[in-house]
Every structure is written in C-alpha cells, then in structure tokens.
C-alpha cells in the first residue's frame, strides 16, 4: 500500500498537469516523502487499480490510475470535473500537494493473458483506466499478441490522449480506430458511436475484450460483442460506484453481493451477470 | 468517558418529537430515539435523526456583529447591546413607539416569545409584534376562532391513527410531518379510509382510497361541493348540527350552487370523485380532517379554513375523539409563539389587546401603561417600512428575505429601515442587511419550552454550551429591555414560565417541573389539571360552532397567455424552510443538493424539456434558472418549487398578495411561465 | 487477528450480591458501561459510576452497543491547511467494560468484528474493541418482537463471548469464553462461586420450541433464487421514508459516510458518521447517475445483503433478531413480518 495507515492519506506532489479536454486533466504525481514507514513507491500498483485522491477540506474521490507500472518514478491520474472533490482537484497546479490512499481494488489480470490477442474498447474518459493496461502491454510488446483499440468520443473536443492514440496505432501489430458520434467540421475520421467500429474486430472473438466508458456505451458494446460471438468470460469491464472508503467498509459500493472497491472494480461480464447488475 | 443522553424536543417541524441528544465530552455526536415519547414513540424522521449536525456548522455566528462602514465588525456584547438599546430608544422618542416592530420566532422557545412581546409592549410601547405564523397558519387562527372560538388543532396527534376516515387536504403529511404521516399510514393499514386532496401526487395520494388532484386555489369550490353532496344526500349529522351549531341556513344557501357538475371544471377533477369523497367522509366516523399550508397560504386562506370547519361540523366530527379539524403547524414552536402572543392583537393566551379589562390586567402585572391599539402584522410592517412609517425592526430567528413572498419588495422595505437588529445562528440574506447581528444559542444550547401542533408544551434541555459567545435569545431580550430602562429579571426560563402561567389561563397549570416527562396539552388551567387531549367536547369554545357561507374566489393572480402556468411552492422531507439547518447537514443536503421545478410530463414534452434539463421559471416579479424534474407528480399546467435554497429563492417569484383577514401571502398560487434553456 | 480469542468454556457462578460488588469494583477501576433507565423510561447503555444506576430489569436497550465501537459520529483526524503533514489522528481508546449486553447484540458485535477485520483492518473500530470486555446477560424471556431463535443468535450463546451470565433461580451461572474474559475473571476471582453447569443446547432447544418465527435456510434460498413477488418489494419501497433510523439502530449495520468539515471552534476535521443504504444519495454518484433504480431495488439489496451475502461471507446471519428496526419505522415496515413473507416465497 502507498499509505501505511488505512484512512490517512499519503502526501503526493503534482509534478505536472496537462489539460486533455475542457473538463479533463491529467496529473502526474510523485510522493512527497519516501520514509521508512511509507516505503512503497510510485510503481507499486497493478493495472486497473484505483486510488482515493484526497483533498483536505473537500473530501476524497476514487480515481483510476491511468499510467502503467512499467513507468518509473511517478503515476498518473486522469480527472474529470464532475463534483466537489474533482472541482477542488482541478484548482491544483504543478507543485501543489494532495493526499493519496491506495492502490485499491483488483486488477486487470494481464499477466495471465500473455501470448493472447487483446481488444480494448474505450468511450470518452473510459480510455483512462484502459490506458494503464494498454501502455503495459505495449511496454512488454513481445509478451502479447495482436492489439486492437477502438475508441469513441462524443465530439472531437472530448477525445482524450489524442497523441498517444496515434502513437499506439504506429506500434507493431497494433491498430487504433477512433470515432466521434456525429460529423463535425475539421474531422475526417470515422463517424458514429463506438459500436459502429465493432466490425473491425468481428473476427477477433477469441481475444479478450476490455471495455470501459459511460454506462450506456458499455451496455451497447457488450451487447454487440455477445452478438459477435464473444463469451461472457472474455469480456472484461470496470464498474463505477460512489465510494467513500475504497476498502470495503463504508458500504456505498456494495452491489449484487460484492464490494466494487475490493472485489472489483474489474469484473468479467459473467461475474456481472451473477451479481445481477445491469450494465 | 463523558457520555450523556439529554432528552429534548425536535427543532424542526410542529409534530414535536422527543428524543435524546447524544453528548460526548461536551460535543453533539448523535441522536437516539425515545420509545416512550407520546409523539415519536421510538421513531423519528431523517431531519430529527440528523439534527445534531445542523447546529454545529463551522460558520456559526460566534460574536455580536455591528455594521461599521458597510462591513461587519465583531464587538463585545456590551457594545452591541448598548447600541441596540440606544438606537431603539432614539427611534421611539423621535418617531413614536409605533415606528418600531418586534418579530418573535416560531423557532425559539415560548419563554423567548413571551419576553419578546413584553419587550415590544412594555418597553417599546407598541403592539407591532408578530412572527412567522404570518407566513403560514395565521389564517388557521383567524378562521377557527371565527368558527369554533379557538384556533388550535382540535385533537391530538396519536388519535389520528384510530380515525375511521382521514381527509387530508393541502397537506403533504409524510414529507412535512413524517410522524403524523406515520399515523395516517397506520390508520390506513388498520382499514381506515383515506381521502387526499392535493395538486401534487404525494406519497399519501398513492395509497389513498380517493385522490383528488385539484388546481391550486380551488379548495373552497371543492369543499362547498362536498358539502352540497352531503346535504343533498341527507348525510349530514342532523342531531349534531341542530344542537351544537348555528348559521347552517346561510351556509346552505351559498353551497347550493356548488353541484358536482358545476364544480368539476373549476377544480379540474371528475365529478364522481368528489361525490365519492363526500360520501366517505360523511359516513365513516370518526373522521379526522388534516390540513396545512395548501389551504392557508392563499389570499382566501381564512375562508379556506372556515370551509373545512364547515365540513367538519356538518358531519359532526368536531369535539369527538379521533375526529376534529387538525391544522398541522409547521414549525417546532409556531403554536407556542402564537400562544405567547407574539401577535399584534393578543396578549398571552389569546387575550385581546383592545379589551380594556385585559389591558388593565397586563398594565397591573407589568407596571406600565400599554397601548390599546392592535399592532401591525409582519406583512404590514414590511409594507409600512417601505412607506417610511416603520423605522426600526428587531427580528429574532427569521429570514424574511428567503421566506416572505416577493422578496424584491422585502429587500426594498428593509433597506429603508433606519435600524435593523437580527438574532440568528448562521448568517442569512436578512442578516446581511442588518445593522447589528446577535448570535443566538441553538435549541441544543438552552433550556426552555416548545409547544407542538397538538398544544403539548414540552421541554428542550440544554445539552452543550453555547457556541462562541452566543447566548440564549431570551437572555439577550432581557438584557436589551434592562438597558432600555425596564429590568427583565429572571433567573431562568422556569421563572418566565411561571409568570406566563399566572397571566394566561390556558397555560395556568404549566410549569417546567410538571412537563418534565411527557409535556402537558393546554388548556391546562391549574396546577392539578392533567391537560386536554381534544377540544370542543360537549361544547365549542365559543359555545356553538358557527357555519359561514363562503363563496369561491380565484387566487390573486391567475394564469393568462403570457404566464400560462400556476406556480406553487412548498416543502420537502429532506430540507426545512430556508435551509439554514438542513443545508448544513450532510445526509440531508446530499439527497437534494440543488434547486428544481416540478413539471408535468406532458407540459415538458411540449417544451422539449427532459428531466434535469436547465430551464427558466419566471413570473411578473422575477426569474430563476433551475433544473426541471419531469414526472406526473404535478397536474398539467401546474409547476411546483421548493423554497429551501437561498441561492435560488423561490420567493423571488411568488406573489405578495395577502389574505385580507390574516395577512398571509399567496405562496401557493401565482402565474408563471417556463422556458427551456439550450 | 481475531478480536475474541476463544478459550474452552470455563464455568462458574455468581450471586446477585457479588455481581453488584463486582460491578462496583469495575466501576472504580475502569469505565463501566451498563443499561441505564432514563427519567423517561428509555433504557440505553451509558457510563455508570456506581452499580445502583444500572437497570437490571429490561428487555433490550433502544440503541445497540455498537455505538461504543462504531459511534454515530467520530472524528477520524484533524488537519489544518492543505498539507497532509498536519494531520492529527484522533483515536480515543479508553478501556471499557460493557455490562448487560444481550446475546443478539453480542452476535452483532461478532459480525462487526469480522466485517471490520476482513480485507483491510479498520483501526478505529478494532482498537476500541481490543480495549473492551463484554459481560453479556442472556435473556430469560423471549420478547414479542425479537426472533433470535430463528436467526440462531440467542437467547443464550454457545461461544463467542467474553463472559456470559445466565439467570438461574437465585443467581447467575457464569461462563467465561475468551482470554479477555478469563483475565477479568481471574482478577476478581474471589467474587465468583463454584461452577454451575448449564445445558446450553437444552436451553436453546427449549427456546426454539417456544418461539420460532421462520426457517433461515428457506429465507436464504428464496432470496438467493429471487422467489419473491416484485409487488412486495415495490410496497416496501413505497413505505420507506428514508429516515435511516432502522439502519442506525441495527446492531450489524456498518455503513458510514465521510465528511470534511470545520467545527465551530475552527478545527478542520475529516469525520465519519452513520449512513444508511435507504437514502437515494447513498448510491448516487457525482454527476447524478444512480445505479440503484428505485425504492424496490433498494429494499431488495438490503435484505439480500443481510440474509444472503453476510451468511455467505461470515457464516452467520447478518440479522441478529433484535427487533429494533420494526419499532422504529414510520412506514410500518416490519422486518420480521417481511422475512416471514419472504419465507413463503411466490
């Protein structure tokens, strides 16, 4: 764990802030101190995990780590301004301090998928948690098979990680397809919701599919994948819930017999069905 | 470990639940219910359960504030109170006693209200004393006094569950009075019949036997129609009407034309439904009639009240157990504030100001000459402030800039005052305009009494020390009076209640010692009297109950082409009045953190509005941008807004038209338009 | 790290007088918390300075003893400014002896022990628990609204207690069941009398025969397989008025919310307070999305949590049959009647 005491945040300093869109920012963080009791470093996390970002006076919010543990010396959080805590976070600049508790949650079992082909389908800011595992896979390129990334955003102003999407597309055995919902001047790429890209992967149904995005996007994407022949065990997604503790105690994220913060947030579609959760 | 459970009474609504405040090491840490309390019986609503958090916000006012050069400066109590005493004395001498006004508080104790009106009458020399019952139930007092002789809830809260029929009109009982809503639920579970009349499909409407969704402001027509049906079908209680009432014939003449066919288009409800309701109410006895501000907050508020009184008397339901006419008082101590005569035309215990014998009694008790002229209501004090006749106001625990109708006019009125003093626990829009702000102690920081809706006088007990240098309001008032030359010397609120008991026959037997356990319901004329469960048994307070013929009249402002909607305002379960306490409570504010307007689905569709879209509601007085909540809860052509959000005050839009008798504003009906914001 | 280190049950006895003397001694040396009857006749656990303040004649307290380990409001830490360096952890861990806890509440605490230990250890709860000893008193009568015989959480326990007292004709049989209990027993040994053996299994069988409301297994199965009418859930969802009281009084409810606030004295605190899943804001996310779609689903979720998930996870019923919730509802939702209804199935 980053923090030695369960509920006490560990101080982290913002190394850099990048504006990704009009309401989304990327923060690179480094811990303020590395002392004997808090010896865990910035890379001691797994893809798919999240932290509780703490702003004293405002509160905490669960945010997925969107960098890969293969990158040394820091980790990254992608934050959208939707509530009180994220609004307070957006006011912080490079050099400012915030608190971190974590890393919490289970992870994408990416180690077990070595040698396999992988499909990543992201919608809007849903690309952020996927970015963690995409970067991990691309850093360990020879350990994995073909990679196809489908990404959709509402408008071109909503697209996150534009440059990285291009870069990923240039990698070996990797393809990236990006789309926006409706045609816009200045956009020459694909137009349509992200499910319209599913025919790019219609022969890839032996691959594991990772799906992250707004609830409605996940709903239709999973539907599309099942129609293309995907098995429920092979569709992996993350569930989002209101959280206060991140450690399975406050009860807010409990659903279908599971605590999303400790049993999740990564679940296969088969598990979600068992939980009787509607996605 | 220093842990105590201090018994007290809830500071929110007029149900007056009892519970314990948990105090650990001098801090409020929670609430525990009381199984034995006659009102709450082990239960509570969400506001009661979380009230411990509402008074410990970091922005409690901790020191007296005096405005110097447009900014508030913290001062000592001496400096602040000397200024207050000096200024009011100066204004009194320059413009006369009637240029001053005192606003008691329905949120503060009986003892405070008694002393506030004593300050106004004995020290300022004016009867310009009133309080926020003016915004809600003063039509009840006016109407029921005319019909029965006494303006209070006739029966007790617990009796409601044993009624054979409950008729709830203009009352969102489960949200505004959850513990009374519990009795309605229990009665229904036991097989009672439930009739609900409300322009909104509230929770009780969902399980009612008859639900009448009438237009706001058409209650008289509806009630007259019910009486028409009862009379034409011979369902009235003939014996009761003959022996216990007067005025039936005049009332019958008026009611004659309100046949179901005539009334149905006025109220917007099927005729058969009204007939069904009338038959049920007349035949299932005892029938308990509940009403709240849906009836009173109209220009015909007093007439609405007299109409329900008519209906109840016609069917022989007054003066019987589990029956009666039950106005559910909104605030924790609005009943008490009325009893204590924070009212312009009464002395304590509803003894009339313009009665020379009564005047002589109080002149003797207080040792000063008193004014025989009834004073101005808060409504008229605001109007007269704008006209330049009221120069100084002393407002205790109220925020007219959030809770009075048409707050633009209120602001103009307060601006013209020469001196404004406000007691408060948190800063509010009204305190921002004050010259002096005095920090009051909250309900958890003082001992005193509240009187709930069923006339039960109960204790609140001090649980923690006053925050900062705040003081119980009653002590502040005593200090001001003393500095103005009339020493108010009371060692404790006990002594104040003793004085009240001596002067008010209905409180004659009330003392703190006697009410320590379950309180006492007035009338309680002497020290051995056990209190009175229900009123008008055998005979009405005025002797015979009086029928009044009431003609239907539309609200002051009705929809037209430009403003085609009826806008109504009201309350929610999770918030309370101007939100001072509830907005600062985590679990409450989390439920409904932002202002909204309820729109009917069909109306929303015509405007292209979807749920949670931004929209603009405007009236002739102002406009607000709020989120739309689309459902079938409100009737078509009707809009509804809560008034709990000071950042988007619904009273910016409401109409400052007042009931001519009771001077209560028409919060429940004005004309509005709705536009989508893209 | 189990909070209650069980030992082989040691039997003893104590006279009523000696019990009084024991409590007297404890009250002088530690903080003794026991049932106290208020002037208004409510019985609640409060600190007592002498045994005569204790109420021995009661069915159960209004609030549950979980308060002393998981309080309604608790400051977690104070801070000043934006820096995490100024965080000051608040943790008051007075040593307490809780006397007079009923078997159902002991089981409730046992569940909370397991809950706060698993996955991550919640120090705020566990350190308070470690500093406490519970002397429970088994019920000699079965009250109308409680149903511990059906949830297998009483009226007397076979294990899982520190010290259990069982009324015999004139005095109490004493059972010591844990290391902490043994420590206390040894300290005041002289006040205890010879072993009195009690037929616990026999007592439990008798109680079950006298009053059993439902078969927990059937309820578990019907909930798990969703063999309950949708209308039932809809009705309950409509009745619930989101006051939260049933869940606040429940001995096994553990949900809380966290707030960052400033006190009137100017201290900035991060605190936790009881929360309840019967509020719509409980599951609503920033941005307004609420995965729990209505009152019916809210109800289903809670019943499932207590009577299926917690049985799966902790091998004991998540409801301990104390009956407090039904007496606290303004919508007349009766938990026991509902369970019986669920047992009937479709």
Layout of helices and strands, plus pairs?
The complex is a heterotrimer of chains A (279), B (678) and C (346).
Chain A: E1 10-19, E2 24-31, E3 50-55, E4 59-64, E5 75-80, H1 84-90, E6 97-104, E7 118-123, H2 127-139, E8 147-153, H3 162-169, E9 174-180, E10 190-191, E11 208-212, H4 215-227, E12 235-238, E13 254-255, E14 258-259, E15 266-268, H5 269-274
Parallel strand pairs in A: 7-8, 7-11, 8-9, 9-10, 11-12
Antiparallel strand pairs in A: 1-2, 1-6, 2-5, 3-4, 3-6, 12-15, 13-14
Chain B: E1 3-9, E2 18-24, E3 27-33, H1 46-49, H2 51-54, E4 65-68, E5 71-74, H3 77-95, E6 100-103, H4 110-124, E7 129-130, H5 138-147, E8 165-169, H6 173-176, H7 178-189, E9 193-197, H8 203-206, E10 210-212, H9 219-232, H10 238-244, E11 245-246, H11 248-255, H12 260-267, H13 271-283, E12 287-291, H14 293-296, H15 301-314, E13 325-327, H16 334-339, E14 346-347, E15 351-352, H17 356-366, H18 378-387, E16 392-396, H19 400-403, H20 407-415, E17 419-424, H21 429-432, E18 436-439, E19 448-451, E20 456-460, H22 473-483, H23 493-503, E21 520-521, E22 545-546, E23 565-570, H24 586-591, E24 596-600, H25 601-607, E25 614-619, E26 622-631, E27 638-642, E28 655-658, E29 665-666, E30 670-676
Chain C: E1 6-14, H1 16-29, E2 31-37, E3 43-48, E4 73-79, E5 88-89, E6 96-101, H2 103-117, H3 123-130, E7 132-137, H4 148-151, E8 163-167, E9 172-178, H5 179-187, H6 200-210, H7 216-224, H8 230-239, H9 245-249, E10 256-262, E11 268-274, H10 295-314, H11 335-344
Parallel strand pairs in C: 2-6, 6-7, 7-8
Antiparallel strand pairs in C: 1-9, 2-3, 4-5, 4-11, 8-9, 10-11
